[in-house]
Amino acid sequence: MLVLLLLPATPAMAAPAWVAPVDLTAAGVSVRTAPEVAVDSGGDAVAVWKGYVGADEVVEAASRQAGGSWQAPVELSGSGHDASEPQVAVDSDGDAVAVWKRREGADYTVEAASRPAGGNWQAPVDISTIGQNASGPQVAVDPGGDAVAVWELYDGTDHIVQAATSPAGGSWQAPVDLSTIGQNASEPQVAVDPGGDAVAVWKGSDSTNFIVQASTSPAGGSWQAPVDLSAATRNALEPQVAVDPGGDAVAVWERYDGADYIVQAATSAAGGSWQTPVDLSAATQNALEPQVAVDPAGDAVAVWERYDGADYIVQASTSPPGGSWQTPVDLSAAGQDAIEPQVAVDPDGDAVAVWENETDLNAEAASRPSGGSWQAPVAIPGGHDAHVPQVAVDPAGDALAVWEGYEGGHIVQAAAYDATGPQLRSLSIPAAGTVGQSLAFSVSPLDVWSALGPVSWNFGDGAETGGAGVSHTYTAPGNYTVTLSAADAVGNLSIATGQVSITPGAAPAGLALGSAGAGPASGPVAKTRARVGGLVLVKNGKALLKLSCPAGAGCRGVVKLSVAREVDGRDRADAQGAGQEIGQAAFKIAGAKAKTVPVKLSVKGEAQVRAAVETGRLKAHVAGTGVIARTVVLKEARRR
Q1: Rounded distance between C-alpha atoms, residue 243 and residue 221, angstroms
Q2: pTM of structure
Q3: Would you state the pLDDT for residue 8?
Q4: Predicted local confidence at residue 638, as pLDDT
Q5: pLDDT of residue 488
Q6: What single string gives the DSSP state of each residue in 383-421?
Q7: How far apart are CA 299 and CA 321, in angstroms?
Q8: Three-state DSSP state, 611
């Protein structure tokens, strides 16, 4: 009987650390705006900023593949027309969308450009109406690459918030008005969930005060009439918004209470009404510049700067889904001015906040493990006169910060927070062999941000060796647990375990398993197993599996989708794997949490889903490691 157990890699003995920054801008380009940054599910990164080339303001971008080097920046906007206020977003595959405003005669027009993962930026296109002044563009994309952009437009009478959408790989649709005509609106922000449902917030006016307003749009649907989030009678400014995979939204803003500005927040369940806002910061001292992020389970983290009578201090508060906001805590050190905070969270709820230390003229950061406490702030090493840092995190928990620095001129710099060990790609452990037979073991480790350290194999029989490709000969029959460990230069460690069965006679046909792309995010199979929802939406070739993990140490593993195939004249798709596999994906879920795991479907799987459009569904089987096997229904999501 063939015995095989292969556990995907997991980080262990982690030593998270900020690595030395690198310059992104080229010589001769002066930067005059805060850069923006985004990362995809594999750790590939893209940054954009406004620079000066001669007398022209241009939007530039630089990108980096996981484990590689930053590429030379490229211009996104054309020369001869000033361009500024760039923003960027990426989908799970690394396809990027950037937006900015560009001067056209006496007015500014919002433009957009896209770039397929690993490819070149396409020529920019206008997405706002030419001849009307547009500014403040923002952009968000869902995991499948559908994009939503919002901006502020002056129509000659009022300032209006508008939006436009673009399906993955498609053209931008005509813009639509979100705010109420006849009332000024500005400072729009937008977020989208994995299904493409969008939420926009902005600062509106009731002719007396500024009020935070919001509008929502289901995937492929129309924007709803705006609703007020903040209470009337006092000004509310600087709104921000974030959504979780289920479409639950969290908005934050600063509101004047008659004496000081207080940070407030409101939440909305998917498709539901916005709740009454609550105060996050304490009264009597100004709290400004709020930012918010949520993890897939709906846990929210908000940060802001608050004046304590002598200095500005960065504070944070957290809220579990459906729960209350916790008492704020100080992130920055006392006695120093800390401003312009930003925050990001990974799928497990680990948070990283960055800000500008005006006293020491550098960028600082603090991290918080999911459910834990914020760590003491640290200076990001090597920054030069850092201003307005921005931050993004990948699903493994690695973070990337970018900022405007100064080194004989204004430049863009980037530094990574390396929190995870190497990805153990193309891992191959033989399932079986015979006594005296030389067996091959191999792996292709890749670390997103740091240089690789040692790779070690323990064969379970007392023998050990190092190297990415090795061989070993067993001298006695039995079942042996093989342990692979790989470290990176900062001390993060990844471990994978497999079992090989050694017999005294002729070996069964060998089987090498590869977990291409599997890395620290996948982790070992936990004793508890994740449950799968019965209805699975399919969008842009990806099945969005909703997995929930019971309380415990968490659930990790690889989930596999299969559909029926004909065996002996009958359709079969059972737990023994008789079905035709159409996709698989690694996952990691914290105990008592849930997340949506996108599974890229095979060409055949996509075809079968499309073919089932008549009935609207296709039955499939979920199996794999770390999940409870069951039959689900695949249903194609509505298209734009």
Answers
A1: 18
A2: 0.77
A3: 43
A4: 62
A5: 93
A6: -SS-EEEEEEE-TTS-EEEEEEEESSSEEEEEEEEE-S-
A7: 5
A8: helix
Cα 28 to Cα 55, 79, 372, 410, distances in angstroms? 12, 16, 45, 10
- Tokens (6 digits) for 98: 């950037």
Residue linked to tokens 């709820």 = 349
Whether 627 and 557 have beta carbons less than 8 Å apart is answered as yes
Would you put residue 218 in left (φ > 0), alpha (ψ -120 to 50) or beta?
Answer: beta
Is residue 269 pLDDT above 60, yes or no?
Answer: yes
**Alpha-carbon distance 6 to 429, whole Å?**
8
Supply 630's token pair.
């069951």
> Who contacts 326 (Cβ-Cβ below 8 Å, separation ≥6)?
317, 318, 319
CB count, 10 Å around CB of 47? 27
Q: Are 44 and 517 in contact (CB under 8 A)?
A: no
Number of H helices, E strands in the chain: 1, 53
Widest pairwise Cα distance in the chain: 88
Strand pairing category for 36-39 and 630-636: unpaired
379-382: Cβ within 8 A, 24+ apart: 380/18, 380/21, 380/354, 380/415, 381/18, 381/19, 381/20, 381/21, 381/415, 382/20, 382/21, 382/413, 382/415
> Between the CA atoms of 574, 579, 581 and 587, what dihedral angle is there, to the nearest 10 degrees?
0
> Average pLDDT for residues 436-464, to the nearest whole number?
95
Residue 220 near residue 639 (C-beta atoms within 8 A):
yes
